[in-house]
Design goal:
Strand content: 35-45%
Strand order of the largest sheet: 2-6-7-8-15
Structural class: mainly beta
Number of strands: 29
Distance between the termini: 50 Å
Radius of gyration: 20 Å
Largest sheet: 5 strands, mixed
Shape: globular
Helix content: 10-25%
């Protein structure tokens, strides 16, 4: 039987957007399991009135575990303009399509050297990797069915604690206050990704779940800047709400960069935020942030993207790829450090979580 996801989203979500604040509040008060840790401790570190029940319920949106991977050449379900998140572990290169993540939101995967959960929120457009090894124990993450400021609340299956993706913190349960280990997952169009990494593996639509991956389950949500399923505070900056921006998050602050700064390809150093030195590189398809240190801040970087994996060169003759790895030159094998809390997002979500967000200009 075809999963009635559109019904759940557009009827249940709208219903809960009007009434679920109180119902979720009551559930949290009366049931410790709804709170996350299963021991009756329902204390949250965030405002419970802003925690909404999304409708499908806990695990109603099924997270994936080590899904089937196919070769890029066989990923006919993807068009060049579809967005993917990319991950590289040595010679293992994997693309995680939004088309899959829109329906599952979390993909738990093991590679040669990592166990990560790819966590993506379709309502805020935010995707990142989280380390699944917590306190020396490997777990997996699931979809709690709850949302905070329209953003996904994953839960870890080891302790049943609830986490806020964009707050980057466990907000309920025995791990409350813990921070996830974050892996940056570059986001770009499939057309660019497969050109850079034609040998890439891709998460297949053969997930074991009957989902219509050819269709976006949220209708006009990502293109209608005035349409929200849950309440959103009025925007301060005059930026379209669903505009995709690149964000750096630091503590209670954030800074965003817009694609119009990178139309023809650009790299620049920004030392005006968080007392750190950031290297920002991008074009019309992707924006990436690296944090420079004393060993790299004196290099002069040049935008050097021509469709291969190389995006940067420098005055020493090094060539750097999209993961910050020097693939040739005197520093071959060394890495630039990703800004660990950088990601793509719909602009409104940054203002919601970080009201003093700075917009680069």
């Amino acid at each position: 039987m075809k999963y009635l996801f559109s019904f759940l989203i557009f009827s249940s979500f709208i219903l809960f957007s009007c009434s679920s604040s109180n119902s979720v509040e009551n559930n949290i008060k009366n049931d410790g399991n709804s709170g996350g840790n299963g021991d009756g401790n329902s204390t949250w570190s965030i405002d419970k009135e802003k925690v909404f029940d999304g409708g499908p319920g806990k695990d109603g949106i099924p997270a994936l575990l080590n899904p089937n991977l196919i070769n890029a050449v066989n990923a006919s379900f993807l068009s060049n303009n579809d967005l993917v998140l990319g991950f590289k572990d040595g010679d293992q290169i994997i693309a995680f399509p939004h088309k899959i993540l829109d329906w599952h939101e979390i993909i738990n995967i093991d590679t040669d050297n990592n166990s990560i959960a790819v966590i993506y929120c379709p309502l805020t457009g935010t995707g990142m990797g989280w380390n699944r090894v917590i306190n020396n124990n490997k777990t997996s993450f699931g979809v709690s069915g709850l949302l905070y400021k329209s953003n996904i609340i994953p839960y870890d299956r080891a302790t049943d604690s609830n986490w806020s993706q964009l707050k980057l913190e466990c907000v309920n349960g025995v791990l409350k206050g813990a921070k996830p280990g974050v892996t940056v997952l570059p986001e770009m169009t499939w057309g660019v990704w497969k050109k850079i990494y034609p040998q890439s593996k891709v998460v297949s639509t053969n997930t074991g779940f009957p989902r219509d991956y050819a269709n976006y389950p949220y209708g006009g949500y990502k293109t209608n800047h005035n349409y929200f399923i849950f309440p959103v505070n009025p925007l301060i900056n005059n930026i379209p709400a669903k505009e995709r921006v690149h964000a750096i998050i630091s503590g209670t602050n954030a800074k965003v960069y817009r694609f119009n700064e990178f139309a023809d390809g650009k790299v620049f150093v920004d030392n005006s935020f968080n007392n750190k030195t950031y290297l920002i590189v991008g074009n019309q398809n992707f924006i990436l942030t690296f944090q420079l240190d004393k060993n790299t801040e004196n290099l002069n970087f040049i935008y050097d993207f021509n469709g291969s994996e190389i995006i940067l060169s420098d005055n020493e003759g090094n060539k750097w790829n999209i993961f910050g790895e020097a693939v040739s030159g005197p520093r071959k094998g060394s890495f630039l450090q990703f800004s660990k809390t950088s990601m793509m997002a719909y602009y409104f979500s940054l203002e919601s979580f970080y009201p003093n967000v700075i917009v680069s200009n």
